[in-house]
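Convert to structure. Protein one:
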Amino acid sequence: MSDSTKACIVLANGLVFEGKSFGATGVITGEAVFTTGMNGYIETLTDPSYFGQIVTQTFPLIGNYGIIPKDFESSACHVRGYIVRSWCETPSNFRCGTTLDEYLKSQNIIGLYDIDTRALTKVLREVGVMNGMLISGNSAEVQEAFESLKDEKKKTALLEKIKAYKIEQAVESVTCSATKIEESADVVFAESAEYRFVPVRSDGTKENDPEKAMKDGKGKKVVLWDFGAKANIRRELLKRGLEVITVPSTATAQEIMALNPDGIMLSNGPGDPQDNVGIIKELKLLLEKKIPVFGICLGHQILALASGAKTSKLKYGHRGANQPVKYLNTGRVYISSQNHGYAVENDSIPAGAVLSFVNTNDGTCEGITYTTFPAFSVQFHPEACSGPLDTSFLFDDFVRLINNHDYFKDFKAEHERIDSIKYFASTIKSTKEKLGA
């Protein structure tokens, strides 16, 4: 291996995984995480929720269909670093604009490949998410970092530096970074229909008629409060006929009310939800106005915090396109796309709120419906590109809530179902403890 291709990741616990370099070169520190998606790597790279994180793809071959700018979720790449087992140098797709390597270089993102991503993922699952440092190339800074790994005293100092890294000002760094969608709702619907990304009803069938899909949303205005919004959230709102106005995370309740919205969309975003003190304060004021609210991912967590619930960090989070969630009101299980490291604590959900979705793997909160004001939220991504599309019907529920503020008033999840899920979760936890997992 020549010096020009030498690269590695150094984890905060001292483990080193050495491989080869692609993309940009240099030295960066970030929070090391993994995602299990088999496709959708373009959306992963451009999802603002990954701000500050070094992302490992568990699927072994990434880059097969190259980079397609039309599929970007935001205007830039937000990951700190990118790790894959293998990357495809000759992608094949009629929409391909450039290669993965060229894109990472253009965004100054360090890439690492030819390591055992299964072994790295196992460490992050068993020990938990931790900080890491990517070292790549042959600059003076890189050589100094590599030399530090050979000296015990210098390596200790390097590990202390890695451990000290903290993701800060996450939302402030990515707000209003969503890709602009200048096309009309009709054009957005037509383009989505080419790839069968039309609205999916709750029964699983698709609505291919734009007139029917947009009928109930026409004439209604939604404010998209951008904490790092994925572009497809706006597309899904437009496909239902809604007018969408995007505002930055710094917007006040007064500024949002001045827009006279019929509904408020709380977007996804990065970082610890508890860091967003100002947003939570403004949201509390908005909730008093009884305007319909729909929250996704970080928006779900912020809405819960504003309502009196608590959040905590998960051991290694949920990231991937294959997370099963159970809708407690019907008992049906859906497959969802997720990207989060924090969760709302089930036992902290306040009066006037009902647990609506749970993760069937670990029993954590995946959704809340509020019964004292018109609002609901989910931890997963119903707008997910490149899918799954199972839960996109929740955008239709948002339209129904806008037209009927009492739509969720009588929503009740059966207590025995909630109890069974809690029992299921505690059983999993007990089994893992017994096995020493």
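Protein two, convert as well:
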Amino acid sequence: MIEPLEPVSAAPVPGVGGLLDTCADGCCARPTGPERADVGWLRAAWWARNLSWVSLVWMSVEGAVGLAAGVAAGSIALIGWALSSGVEGLASAIVIWRFTGSRMLSETSEARAQKAVAVSFWLLAPYVAVEAVHELLTGQRPAASVLGIVLTATSVAVMPVLGIAKQRLARRLGSGATAGEGAQNLLCAYLGAAVLIGLAANSVFGWWWLDPLAAFAVAGVAVKEGMASWRGETCEC
């Protein structure tokens, strides 16, 4: 269990406590001059790191179970969504790295973490898009998956809570990396809802074509969010 950080003195620490210069329109620009690493900022960093640990554990279980269910059902949308859990887990690991040790007070580490989170969005899109095209062309019909429906429904309920909490912390920390991870949690919920609709429609009505369409949604939103994270537009200032 990670213990909360001890309070520190309010001695000036260059480059800490303001907002990072990541947003294109300057809304997240850090004020110039020395800033103070206040206790509130350090507490927010502690929460960001520990919420990322929660996400990492959750995504590991979700990804493994979702991948097994997707392969069993032959659902490319479910497989793609499960793989996106691995990508989100990578983003969580990046944020944990960002707020550990001396990197906590490093602007360079924040910039690297933000770019790495952006790249993690793009790892998913090519595979999902290609497999969705293949499924449409071959007319491959996924089987009904009760496990997939339960899993995606759980994600739709849980992920928004984590995503919103992380984006609030991101504004306090001025961290584009934390904002990007929160955006991935929200993306997981949105895409989980799309996959859930596709799985349910296939089970009830036999609408197999909704599965690859949901997969295209997974790929498209991942590319869009990756570009926003790279440009620092996840700050939501």
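The helical segments are 39-73, 76-98, 107-122, 125-138, 146-173, 176-205, 210-231. DSSP finds seven helices and two strands in the chain.
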